[in-house]
Every structure is written in C-alpha cells, then in structure tokens.
Write a structure and sequence with these properties.
single chain; mainly alpha; Arc Repressor Mutant, subunit A; two-stranded antiparallel sheet; 2 helices; about 10% strand
C-alpha cells in the first residue's frame, strides 16, 4: 500500500493519536511521506529498501 494515515500508524504501532500524528509530521519533514491530503491520507514517497 502506498498510503499512510494517522489511524494506520496508530493501529500498526499500537500508539495514541497524538504520537502517531507527530510521527507522520516527522516523516513528512524527512521526506518519507507527502503532505496530508483532503482525505487525511499521505502518499509514501520512498520504498522500504531505501
């Protein structure tokens, strides 16, 4: 899947909303995911092997 969302991160890592949101913001700053779209999803910009 090439999409990331706060809820996906919450479920996968079993963490709260605020921590998941912060992680995605940090990933955006690092260039790993795109800015949040209107539906709350972000596009993953790098492959796991990178």
């Amino acid at each position: 899947n090439k999409r990331a969302s706060i809820s996906l991160v919450q479920r996968h890592l079993r963490i709260g909303y605020n921590r998941a949101a912060r992680l995605l913001e940090d990933m955006e700053k690092a260039g790993l995911v795109s800015k949040m779209g209107g539906n709350g999803n972000r596009e993953i910009l790098v492959r796991p092997s990178e």
